[in-house]
Specification:
globular; alpha+beta; 60s Ribosomal Protein L30, Chain: A; single chain; 6-stranded mixed beta sheet
């Protein structure tokens, strides 16, 4: 399978987060690699939500839209990486996370790191089966 670039208007474009050169996702080797998605409204380009639960929900909506555009779904996610602006948001992030992955959740790693977009508290990247 040749590398395929995935883009959908149902998720924020790379330009919505700034002038960064990346694809929403790349489909290759039977997998879909979704770039880190923040809680950005794809229609307006603005950060959605003030709570970590709201921001996690929007980030996962963006991931879901990209996976669907690539022909796969959230239940095919095998690995996820999240970055939190604030370590105290971990519990609230998990509250929303379990709604999206109620059974057989993906492998996961996380980190706390300053995020470049004002108001952004979380970014989520995933790898899913194609």
């Amino acid at each position: 399978m040749a590398k395929q670039i995935i883009n959908t208007p149902k998720a924020p474009s790379a330009s919505a987060s700034g002038p960064y050169p990346y694809s929403q996702a790349v489909k290759a080797a039977g997998l879909v690699f979704v770039s880190g998605q923040g809680p950005i409204d794809p229609a307006t380009g603005t950060v959605v939500g003030e709570t970590i639960q709201d921001q996690t929900r929007q980030a996962l909506r963006n991931v879901d839209a990209i996976l669907r555009a690539s022909g796969t779904y959230m239940d095919k996610v095998v690995s996820a990486t999240f970055i939190l602006q604030y370590s105290e948001d971990f519990a609230g992030m998990n509250e929303e996370w379990v709604r999206w992955f109620p059974i057989d959740p993906p492998a996961r790693q996380g980190a706390r790191h300053p995020l470049a977009v004002e108001g952004l508290r979380i970014s989520i990247a995933v790898v899913a089966e194609a």
